[in-house]
Structure formats: C-alpha cells, structure tokens
Amino acid sequence: LPFVDVAADDWFYHDVVAAYHGGLLNGTDAVHFSPDGAMTRAMLFTVLARMDGQKTEGGKTWYSAALQWVVSEGISDGSNPNGKLTREQLATILHRYAGHPKAGEDLAAFSDAGEVSGYAEEAVKWAVGAGLITGMGDGTLRPQGGATRAQVAAILVRFQENREGN
Fold this sequence. Notes:
By secondary structure, this protein is an all-alpha fold. It has helices at residues 13-21, 41-51, 64-72, 87-97, 121-129, 149-165.
C-alpha cells in the first residue's frame, strides 16, 4: 500500500488492502488513506457506481456522474452529497443497492438498537444479519454515528464477499 497511515497491525489493514486493490476506495491523497476520516455520501455514491461498472468521471463535480446514477437507480435521493455518512445511512444505501433483501436479524443484542431510525431499521437488520455490520465491540451499533473510511472499507469488502458467494 502507498499509505503511510495504514499499518499491517491495524484492525482494518486487510480490508483497506482489499478495497484499494479491488478498486473500491482510493486514498485521500497519494500517501494517505485517512482511515479515521469521515466517509461522505458522495464518496459512497462513487464507490457504488464503480462497483456497478458505471462511468464516474465528468460533470460539474468529481461525484456528479455517480450522484446522477444513484438517483436514477433509486439508491439515494442524492441529498447532502458532501455530508458525513452515518452507519445507518450506509446500511440503507447498501440495502437499496442490493435490491432490498429481506431483513433477518434481531438487533436486541445491541444496547443502542433503539437508536436506529425507523427508515433504516430493515436495512440495519439486514446488514447485521449478513455480517456486514458487526457492531463496535462494546455491544453497540452506533447507528447515527459517523462511518469512518476504515469501517466503510471493511463493510464494503464483506459486502463484495457476500455478493460473490451468492
């Protein structure tokens, strides 16, 4: 990896390697991945467009083509593209991208399950049931907390593995 901020003993190392070499995520510059940095909605739109084989170059902004694509596909309404992505928004957008698969997991094991927004509940249940979101290690989901770039790398790698396994 070209990133000075990703070490082999980081919990996210293998996921960042897979996401980077798989063409899902780039660095924030030539030598930084910014694993603890916030993931924006525009970044996720661009990643999903790449995953789907869509053209992501061109347009008024670096994410214009991806934004247009996610809106046209009903994956997102495209609002607040530069806003920080929450964990429940990530689950919801992936759930829509995956075609609204059935939810399969009770969230009662997580002490903050009641903090999942109504619009995101089915998606978060699906993401937990599919093993995409495993919680924070302290028994919480932190659904309205920001999704870091390292967390998104891990979730996207799991999502890809699930898709390839089916």
